[in-house]
TrEMBL record:
Listed name of the protein: Mannitol-1-phosphate 5-dehydrogenase
Sorted UniProt keywords: NAD, Oxidoreductase
Residue spans crossing the bilayer: none
Gene source species: Isoptericola luteus
Signal sequence residues: none
Pfam families hit by this protein: Mannitol_dh, Mannitol_dh_C
Family label: Belongs to the mannitol dehydrogenase family.
Catalysed reaction, written as an equation: D-mannitol 1-phosphate + NAD(+) = beta-D-fructose 6-phosphate + NADH + H(+)
EC number: 1.1.1.17
């Protein structure tokens, strides 16, 4: 057996779409495992169906260089291990042509975002990647570096190859660096800088350069949310007349469709990499693992050309909202419930959690009693059957999806996954019992982690720890479960104030958390 590294040039032709580095048609922000197991697979399959090879993907990795360092030496090619209850299959994907890391390659990313051959920008940057504050508005402080760079780039008119445009002030520097070289620090910031570069390039060339920005993150009305954040970024960086040209261009040439994405894609483990190395005869550092199911529902609102994703199974529709709401409230909502309650019960994986009869009952009741009455079925869908199918998908042990992974970023996910269900049920005069249990389970995980001196994996981890410390009078281990739960339900930005203040809800959460606290299993 050889463990040479997987490389495009060594892959027999026909196995992957033969895209080349100059065939970037899509820039993807946030190239983690999910993108590689989802949109990149749809893109690959569409290219194989049509032979249209314009749709190579330039992936952008925000947090660290690791995905770039895994994929670049492989020429972008990687494999997807599809793990089902009845066996696994392995497929090669060649739609990613390269990966760039903004810390070192911002000018290249901006150039790709501005290029006439790029028609679509996709994003999977997770809920926290949108840099929103507790009110859902752009947290300007978190993107201030990019906004300063945007201001400098737009005022100086740096062209996207890095040369200042005609008449530009060549001495206009930002922190000693030309503005366009200033590393992109946030997904939204980089996107806005790229869109502004595109608008300038379009104006300089005297030619329209429409582009579609397609967010694929698990958020309600994700396209509208991103569109609003982009416009808030423009207003903050280029207030008044300074941004008028950009605002007009965004309105005329850029669309922000909503989309619903679905595939369970856990973090790849070293064991899975070893297993695939034995099977492939080559080591794939970019391996991703996913369940057999995959779904993509996209609002049909494209500014220009797009891949024929429908040939790979995507659904185009005028209204994504019912799909998105059903998926977020039923799949993700139940996933999070099982993750927190599963941890409390000592389960490592979602499959273990959902086959625990007590938790399975909770999960089913959460879907049927709390979430379903708040949902309108998307056309042709049977939500009762969907709920049952979700429990089967969660029970697939082959993906090894862990409760720890799904429980990360609770403060970002809970408003989206449980908030709507809770608000709608309270408005209908009913206290959602299982959602209250879910909040209690999250609260208990937060309390027990703090009591053990650990931080939860959440961008607001420090704040969460303080809530527990305060409840314990400075000693996390002394904090009472009910006090912590009361404080966490009221955490700003978690639930709308009237919902968080609902006496019936708070009483239900407190009753559940007291029952959970009485059983001191490990988190
Ligand atoms: C999960 C999702 O990690 C999580 O929070 O709930 O990533 C889930 O697996 C996907 O949304 C499924 O489409």
């Amino acid at each position: 057996m050889t463990t040479d590294r997987l490389h495009r040039s060594a892959v027999p032709s026909g196995l992957v779409a033969p895209v080349a580095p100059d065939q970037v048609g899509i820039v993807h922000l946030g190239i983690g495992a999910f993108h590689r197991a989802h949109q990149a697979v749809f893109t690959e399959l569409a290219a194989r169906e049509t032979g249209d090879l314009r749709w190579g993907i330039l992936g952008v990795t925000q947090r660290s260089a690791s995905v770039r360092d895994q994929l670049r030496p492989q020429g972008g090619v990687y494999s997807v291990l599809t793990a089902g209850t009845d066996g696994t299959t392995l497929d090669l994907v060649g739609s990613v042509v390269d990966v760039a890391w903004p810390a070192e390659e911002t000018p290249r990313v901006l150039a790709a975002l501005a290029a006439p051959t790029t028609h679509v920008v996709t994003l999977t940057v997770t809920e926290k990647g949108y840099a929103r504050d507790a009110d859902g508005r752009l947290d300007v402080a978190r993107v201030s570096g990019d906004l300063a760079a945007l201001r400098a780039e737009h005022v100086v008119d740096v062209d996207v190859d890095g040369d200042p445009g005609p008449g530009a002030d060549t001495h206009h520097l930002l922190g000693g660096e030309p503005a366009h070289a200033r590393p992109g620090e946030s997904a939204v910031g980089l996107l806005v800088r790229g869109l502004a570069a595109r608008q300038r390039a379009s104006a300089a060339a005297g030619q329209a350069r429409p582009v579609t920005v397609l967010t694929c993150d698990n958020m309600v009305d994700n396209g509208r949310v991103l569109q609003r954040l982009v416009s808030e970024a423009v207003d903050a960086a280029l207030p008044g007349e300074a941004g008028d040209d950009l605002r007009a261009w965004l309105a005329a040439e850029v669309t922000f469709p909503c989309s619903m994405v679905d595939r369970i894609v856990p973090a790849t483990t070293p064991d899975q990499r070893d297993q695939v190395a034995r099977e492939l005869g080559a080591r794939d550092e970019g391996l991703v693992v996913g369940e057999p199911f995959r779904q993509w529902v996209i609002e049909d609102d494209f500014a220009g050309p797009r891949p024929a994703w429908e040939l790979a199974g995507a659904t185009f529709t005028t209204d994504v909202a019912p799909w998105e709401r059903a998926k977020l409230r039923l799949l993700n909502g139940t996933h999070s419930l099982l993750a927190y309650a599963g941890r409390l019960a000592g389960h490592t994986t979602l499959a273990e959690a959902v086959t625990d009869p007590v938790l399975a009952r909770r999960a089913r009741a959460f879907m049927l009693d709390d979430a379903l009455p708040t949902l309108e079925a998307p056309q042709g869908a049977d939500l009762g059957a969907y709920a049952t199918s979700l429990l089967e998908r969660f029970a697939n042990p082959a993906t090894g999806h862990t409760t720890v992974q799904v429980s990360m970023d609770g403060t970002q996910k809970i408003p989206i996954r449980w908030g709507g269900t809770i608000a709608d049920r309270l408005a209908a005069g009913v206290v959602p019992r299982q959602a209250a249990f879910a909040l209690a389970a999250w609260s208990e995980v937060v309390r027990r982690e703090a009591a053990a001196g650990r931080e939860v994996d959440d961008p607001r981890a420090a704040e969460l720890r303080h809530v527990v410390l305060d409840a314990g009078g400075g000693d996390a281990a002394a904090a009472g479960a009910a006090d912590v739960a009361r404080a966490l339900v009221g955490l700003p930005g978690l639930l709308p104030p009237d919902v968080a203040g609902d006496a019936g809800l708070v009483a239900a959460v407190v009753a559940e958390v007291e029952a959970l606290a009485a059983v001191p299993t490990a988190v």
